[in-house]
Amino acid sequence: MKKIVVLILLALSTQGFAQNKLFGKDPIINLENFQKQKLYFGFYLGFNSYDFKVDYKTVSEDIQVKKNTGFNVGLVADLRLQEYINLRFEPGLYYTKRDLGYPSSYFESTPTYSDRLREVNSTYIHFPLLLKFSSLRTGNVRPYLLGGLSATLNLSSNAKSIDDNYEQIFRVKSWTTNYELGFGIDIFSEYFIFSPSIRGVFGLTDELIRDKNPDSPWTGNIESLKSRAVFINFTFH
């Protein structure tokens, strides 16, 4: 993915950014009327870093969540509501992995390494509906803020499994809801708009499916388990 980012930056530099004085005093205005369209489309590539917010029923040692960098790809549909406000739909496919490390104190007897570790691999189909608040365009640059709600379908949830953690199966719900906040910048080249952005995603609903045993060391003391994430996306229109 690092190589892809380098290639993107090289492509941008060869599109005449320097020649057009993108950040200069008197830049050549690119794609002046593109964002005046009522509806336009694009796609994005990016990275994600997912975490879990864990709330407990009683005070205890924290479950350690190890985050890993995942990959995003998706489409963008942008509906112009007025000059500074757009409604965006950004469905995408998100791959991620989190490791939950349980303290030994959670178990009545000395646990094995496999007892203490739960690998949570997730393949998400993400459906965000966002409002984009853009500033005045300055030359070929236009910053913006994003905010809205989203629903997420976890294709790797194991929600239908009759087995639980006693059979090494960690289960979460298939659907979750979130709110999202972020910011980005539209950079206008001669042929397309490049929009890097960063966004925080915060789960609204508990997604944990408890084990059949109410005193399970893996789920018994968890009041709620909610996903949190940071997205870094590179969008092209």
From TrEMBL:
The keyword Plastid does not apply. SUPFAM superfamilies: OMPA-like. Residues 37-207 form the Outer membrane protein beta-barrel domain. It comes from the Bacteria. The keyword Coiled coil does not apply. Residues 1-18 form the signal peptide. Transmembrane segments: none annotated. This is PorT protein.
